[in-house]
Here is the input.
Amino acid sequence: MHLMLQYPFNSQALLRKRRSIKKELLSKSILMEKRVAVLGGSTTHDIKDMLELFLLDQGIRPVFFESEYAQYWQDAMFGNPKLEELRPDVIFIHTSNRNITGFPDLEDSAEAVDSLLEQEYQHFEVMWDKLRETYHCPIIQNNFEYPSYRLLGNRDASDIHGRTNFITRLNQRFYEYAQTHEQFYIHDINYLAADYGLEKWSDPFYWHMYKYCCCMDAIPRLAFSVSNIIKSLFGKNKKAFALDLDNTLWGGIVGDDGVENLSIGPETSMGQVYTEFQQYLKAHKKLGVLLNVVSKNEHENAIAGLKHPDSVLTPDDFISIKANWEPKSRNLVQMAEELSLLPESFVFVDDNPAERAIIRQQVPGVPAPEIGEVEHYINVIDRSGFFEVTNLSKDDFKRNEMYKENARRAELQANFGSYEDYLLSLKMAATIRPFESIYMSRIAQLTNKSNQFNLTTKRYTQEEIEAAADDPDTVTLYGKLEDCFGDNGVVSVVIAEVNGDTLDIILWLMSCRVLKRDMEFAMMDELAKQAQNRGIKKLVGHYYPTPKNAMVKDFYALQGFTKADEDEQGNTRWELDISEGYEKKQHVIQVQN
Amino acid sequence: MSRTEIYEKLTAVFQDVFDDDGIEINDSTTAADIEDWDSLTHIMLLSAVEDEFGIKFDMKAVQGLKDVGAMVNLIGELLA
Here is the structure.
């Protein structure tokens, strides 16, 4: 990741050096291309430029459609051939309080204000409905920033005639739409403007000179914030923290100062600030973010520190604790491997600039934010958007627990003679069925998140998943796996298309949390059964290599397929004849349909 | 700051914004002389100049800028 694009960034330097930064980013391997439509109610040129830089930095190469000046509504409502041709993967509607056409008059009755509010709101709602129906893709919509002046002074906030009050109510209506519609996301420019400083943000110079709704210097902040929503939608969120201990989670050095002398807890200001930081980190567990420790310490000292009576975080809160004297980069890579995560899924938090520099150099793609002094840790991490929450599923609440269960399974495994005995002892039960409506969002999420155990790395929006489920010529399967330690939830997804008497497997993925559990064989058994029921004679599989999916290179060979074709890029095509029958491959999981 | 010093810094800004180390500017340079200098880049340019010199342009002054010479004069006045 490019250091210049990490929060806190130098906005002016980004704006000024955008061309050279872009060249640099384009020279690196970029994995996915996404079509992004920017529908603006004010000038969007520099916003688009900055958005491009931040997305490239996340491994997303955007292809843009940009509305002509302030044509957002016309493009949405009456169509635009270029927009239709783009078939956007995501639409960003950049409107601001400059796009509110009518504000209450002081003489208006309450009914008149209500009706004005309804009118302003409807202008947007009809547009969202139209866009959803036309493009079936996620929509990101700005809310409204507070007005830059207040005719009624403080009363502007509470009086129904105040612009501040009107904007607050309008925003509330936007949120209600977001709460009741999937794939619709509010981009909170009201918060951004407040955070930046409303007076500077709304500098009228930029509106009157160039029709920008915010000042130039704020544009990178705005674009960064939008890029965080987009990268989250396309599965580029971080998944875990790798946390240092001494002077990061508490003040002092546990090995030198002793547990009793650490700064943590309510007694002192320094203790309090570390406590608040620990609370902030702990709250991430409910978002499904995994907490881990990478510390240069004796292991027993690390544990002793975490057992400090005032420590909010306890050893139990962590999935993995690496406290030793090995280089942190090595510990982090090893930890990633043990948890079946990619190293770049981690955020490295350390007060020591030298350790941060080593991580950036040795494990590219792992952000090591410049967190500053302890009182600023939260501010920097929070504004970095590593874990931007676009969809919150029940799975997220339980993710830490699931990883803990995995650790316990690993312990159990050590006690068994054969691997099969171990698998049997897990008492696994799977549900393997065609896509069902309650799992659509989880299935779409998996297609965007899974990189390693993913044969074709094809990404789907929720609408596309629903369309596949409805298509009579498409076979869809999801797999859910439970065992004696708990429920892993939906962990595998398969989509295959019927072509005459062959079945073409266009998507096959599995969550790495259930590696080596024979779940992939259970899925294949079910797919073969479904294929036979349809009179299919041949299964066709594909493997498209990416920098991340080498682990499934031989997947189809292991499933008994024969390689039929390979091109120069290493894309392979595999076939399995099932006209003479199919032998079940898996005997350790009880499968329900 | 002398005109020479202003020119030195200003040239660096132009080179960054247009990503071209070969760009040279003088009093009579206008948008017509630099290929990528359009109205949108102009906004960026002014913002970068403000940042480089620690100054703030007002609307009236910006609208009177007809060439680089005028820009250098304006920067000089704001720095004085």
Summary: Chain A touches chain B at residues 12, 15-17, 19-20, 23, 45-46, 205, 208-210, 212, 216-217 (CB under 8 Å). Residues 110-135 of chain A form the longest helix (26 residues). The CA atoms of residues 110 and 160 of chain A lie 7 Å apart. Chain A has a mean pLDDT of 94.
